[in-house]
Amino acid sequence: MNKIYFITGIGTEIGKTLISAILVQKLKADYWKPIQSGDLDFSDTIKVKNLINNKKSIFHPEAYRLTQPYSPHYSAKLDNVEIDLSRFKFPETDNHLIIEGAGGLMVPLNEYHLMIDLIKKLKAEVILVSKNYLGSINHTLLSIEALKNRDIPIKGIIFNGSSSPSTEEIILKMSGIRCLGKIEKLNEIDSKSIIKAGEHISL
């Protein structure tokens, strides 16, 4: 049975794209970024594609390609478009699918909907990416609480970056969520390191 995972983070610059690349390579999965805000010439889709060396993964086009590097709702406004939840349809594929979100769960897509509403609509199981910094316990637990409140299934947490055992232990204990793996900071980010990093993730 094919797996569909939505990769979201506890905030911005958490490492969603890196983790997405690792999972795409590990599962030889397809990749889909529903919304790209800004950096269209070097989008997250392009970044992930450049790190993958298997010939099975397909990279599906974004539903929205917004030219400005802001929150999706504001980028869309500047581009004179409105993000419509009904436009989001799963790409046609017979493969596993990794979906990467934009920003965190409460990023607005328009005046009525948040990123978490898109996750709910897609009915995908969530993999939450957490990164250790002062305040990350709060941000991680709040993200988990929001997902649970909407009955969105959580596959588990991946900790990205420098390890902090005390932080990780209390998050796992208080949330009851499974740790899928810990990815230490990579010295180099290339296809070989992506493959190696995948060995530290258990789905």
Features:
globular, Rossmann fold, 7 helices, 203 residues, single chain, alpha/beta
CATH H-level homologous superfamily name: P-loop containing nucleotide triphosphate hydrolases
- Overall pLDDT confidence: 95
- Tell me the number of structural domains: 1
Q: Class by helix and strand content?
A: alpha/beta
- Strand arrangement, largest sheet? 4-2-6-1-7-8-9
Q: Give me the count of strands.
A: 9
Overview of this structure, please?
- This protein is α/β, with parallel strands linked by helices and about 200 residues long.
- The chain has a single domain, classed as P-loop containing nucleotide triphosphate hydrolases (Rossmann fold).
- The protein is built from seven helices and nine strands, in the order E-H-E-E-H-E-E-H-E-H-E-H-E-H-E-H.
- The chain has a seven-stranded parallel beta sheet with strand order 4-2-6-1-7-8-9, sandwiched between helices. The chain has a two-stranded parallel sheet with strand order 3-5.
- Helix 6 links the parallel strand 8 and strand 9.
- Helix 1 crosses helix 7.
- The longest helix has 14 residues.
- It is globular, with a radius of gyration of 16 Å.
- The protein starts with a strand and ends in a 5-residue tail after the last helix.
- The mean pLDDT is about 95.
